[in-house]
Structures are given as C-alpha cells and as structure tokens.
Amino acid sequence: MAIGAVSLAVAKTCGMLLNNPLYLNIALLKHNQERPTMLSMPLLMVSLVSCGKSSSGKLNLMKEVICIPHPELTAKQGVEMLMEIQKHINKIIEMPSPPKAETKKGHDGNKRGQQQITGKMSHLGCLTISCDTIEQPLVLIQGICANLGLELGTNLHLAINCAGHELMDYSKGKYEVMMGTYKNAVEMVDLYVDLIDKYPSIIALIDPFRKEDVEQWDSIYHALGSRCYIIAGTASKSISKLLEQANISIPKSNGLIITHTNQTTMSDLVEITNLIDNKQHIAVFGSTEGESSDDSLVDLAVGLGVRFIKLGGLSRGERVTKYNRLLTIEEELVQNGTLDTSSSSCDGTGGRERETVTLVKV
User: Fold this and answer.
1) Which residue ranges of the chain lie beneath pLDDT 70?
2) In 3-state terms, what secondary structure has residue 346?
C-alpha cells in the first residue's frame, strides 16, 4: 500500500541529487533519460460549481461543471479569467433573495426552476449549489460570461463530470438524474445528445455512465465522440489492470483520467501515458479524494505531458497550492525557453512578458 509514496519519494530524491525539478526528472523517465528540449503545459480543467447528489437541489446530474480556458491562453491567464468568473458566481450566491409572492393559501408562489440559488463550499474546491433543472447551472455560467465579455465556445469551454456511478438507483435499475426523475441507460444517451445539441460549448463528458453499462458507452461514443470527449474516470479500471490487459478501450472512450495512488509507481504512470498516447486517446491527470497539500501531482502531469490537468476548484488550501505550483512551473519553462506552445496557434500572450500570479486561499 506504500509503493506509490516510496516511488514518488525516490523520484523526488533523484531530482534533488541531479539538481532537477521533479517535473524534469519525470520527463527524463518518460523519454528514456533523454532530456526533452521542450515541455508543454497541460490545459486546465477547473471546477466552477457542483450540482451532484450532495447538493440540496433536485438536480443530481452535474457533480462538477468544469471550465476549460482556450488553449491559446497561458495557465496564468486562464486562472485569472476563471477567478473572475468565480467571483461573480460567489456574488450571485450571496445576493439576498427577493421577497416571495404568497398564494392565497400562504404557500410560496415561486415556480420550479426560479428558486434562489444557494451554495456552500465543497471538498472539490468549488461551490455546491442548489439547482432544479439541468439548464440552470449552465445558464448561470453563460450569463456571467456574457457580462464579462466572454463567449462560451470561443474564449472557454465546458466539461461535465456526470459521476454516473453515483446516479444509479439499483432498486429501480435507473439513473436518478433529478430527484424523482429516473432514466434508463438508453434514455440517458438521448439526454446527453440533447444536452450537447443545446450547449455545444460542452466539449467533454466525464463518467456519463457507470462502468457496467458497456453498450451505452459504445452508443454515446458513436453518437458524440466526434463532437466532445467521452472520458472515463471512476468508470475506468485501475492503472495496474489497464497495464496488465494493455487495453484501454473498455469502456469505450477517447480519454482517461489517471491519478497517482498508493498502489501506483512512477513507472506505472509513464507506461499508462505511453499506452494512452499510442492509442491516440487523451490523458487527464486528476487529483484524488481526501487530498493533501502536496503539489507533486502537478509536476507529474507536466513531466508526463498529459493533455489536461483536473485539480478541482480555485478554493481550499490544498487545491490552491497545486494551482500555484502549476503557475510556477509555467514561469520556469518560459524563463528557460523550454515552454512548448506548438499545441496552439499562438501563445496567447500578445507579445507581453508573462507575470507570476499567486492565488489567495479562500
């Protein structure tokens, strides 16, 4: 159970002895000890709000509504933009609700979907808000972006962590997408297709089903795989099993979330990312539940060259520490002239020198 921690400690120690940062030491491991001339930064996946099973509203489907800044933006620019969006979300949540109309019987006259949005900080580092419809959190973010002069689908995109395994009501054999609203696996495919049709700015669905619904993973991949990423997180097998079977195609997806656990060595991470790259899938490096303030996973993500990094929201000290580490690494790569910006058409800086930014703990 300690092999993952031991492996990480060895990698850190080796880096210190060679006077290399951890991300460079991992990159050397990834490239058979050949020092890469350029390193790329993973794209941000930042959780803005949570409307999952733990929320007080009727909506269960969206455990995380995630924002992905445009790839031409630097990590610093992306974080600053998302911090501004988060501030506006917080303001709306804190606004006092207007006086409620009363019916003749003295009951609340508000219609469903028009209730005051309330929220509390979650362990994910974002606000858990109460919503009653699927559209409500998306309209909220859409409106805030419009007020800030940002356009969803241009300046930034969205991803949804559906957490399908948490939605299943095993007594009914259906997914409870909203309180009292149940859909079977086939109906869920139609729901997701309608969602992407209505909100094309959503470019990724994470865990749309539990892993047992293999046929529906196939169906949604064929229906939406060319329009958005279908990503397996909890629904994926463990890294050791994926490496043992050398098969990442079950469930059918075009991306995997990988994490560093106590059972995962640095060599395992290198092997699984190589497998993902060879299969032309995308790798998302994610954080684990019950996190610490150790920011090593950011170095791992950069060294492994993953496409996305998913650290949760911009609040809570253990997450803020990791975002700060990401910005520090980016600045080091810029100063060393080793930042690879070829994944985007331009570096998004407009020729200006990049500055460091430090997040404030919330």
Assistant:
1) 95-119, 289-291, 343-362
2) coil
Whole-number pLDDT of residue 311: 94
* Closest to 184 (Cα-Cα) out of 216, 137, 225, 149: 216
Choosing among 3.90.198.10, 3.40.190.10, 3.20.20.120, 3.30.70.1140, the CATH entry for 19-95+116-336 is 3.20.20.120
Q: Which helix (H) or strand (E) holds 46?
A: strand 43-51
CA dist., res. 76 & res. 331, Å (int): 9
* pTM strictly above 0.85: yes
What 3-state DSSP class applies to 108?
strand
- In the block, tokens 């794209």 appear at 43
Contacts of 189 (CB under 8 A, 6+ apart): 216, 219, 220, 223
The pLDDT, as a whole number, for residue 119 is 65
Q: How far apart are CA 161 and CA 66, in angstroms?
A: 7
Residue 184, both tokens = 């079977």
Q: Retrieve residue 354's tokens.
A: 């990049």
What is the structure's pLDDT at 102? 46
Nearest residue to 339 via CA among 313, 296, 305: 305
How does 223-243 read in b/e, with b if 16+ C-beta sit within 10 Å? ebeeebbbbbbebbbebeebb
For the chain, what's the residue count?
A: 362
How big is the CA angle at 259 (ends 193 and 22), to the nearest 5 degrees? 130
H/E stretch holding 62 reads strand 62-69
Quick one: pLDDT at residue 116?
52
3-class state of residue 228 by DSSP: coil
Task: Say which of 110, 147, 184, 262 is annotated catalytic.
Answer: 262
Residue-range domain boundaries for the chain: 19-95+116-336
**Could you tell me which residues are beta bridge partners of residue 255?**
231, 282
Q: What is the CA angle 292-24-281, rounded to 5?
A: 80
Q: 185-191: long-range contacts (C-beta < 8 A, 24 or more apart)?
A: 185/209, 185/213, 185/215, 185/216, 186/216, 186/219, 188/164, 188/216, 189/216, 189/219, 189/220, 189/223
- 274 assigned to active site: no
